[in-house]
Amino acid sequence: MTETIKNDDYIFNYISNKSIKNIMTDEIKYFFSDKRKICMVKTDNEKIEFYGKLSDIEADLNKVPFVRTHQSYLVNCKYIKNTSYNHVELMDGAVLPVSQSKRKNIYNIFGKYRKIIEDSDY
């Protein structure tokens, strides 16, 4: 089983304007993709765009509680308020889509995340 680490212990690196930049994953609400472009939405609602693949980001963040809710969305579990059949609601009221193929995985990952939060001083 892969060990889950705290969001504030992990740094995400990305390339923007030909330089490597980094951000604490705790500051990222979600990523969404549009073709080859990724948009990272931060907790202050700043949007940062860079080129890449959402699947590569998902693989890079495999030890941090992010969940793929849709082909185009990767969401930080820390900011999910509620999950439902066809969407997730974030703490700030944003509503993001859930695809049928990702539904079961969302319940599994988010459920495990909630249990970790309840069982620790996360």
From TrEMBL:
Keywords: DNA-binding. This is LytTR family DNA-binding domain-containing protein. Signal peptide: none annotated. GO terms for molecular function: DNA binding. SMART domains: LytTR. PANTHER family: STAGE 0 SPORULATION PROTEIN A HOMOLOG, TRANSCRIPTIONAL REGULATOR-RELATED. Residues 12-112 form the HTH LytTR-type domain. The keyword DNA-binding applies. It holds the Pfam family LytTR. The keyword DNA-binding applies.
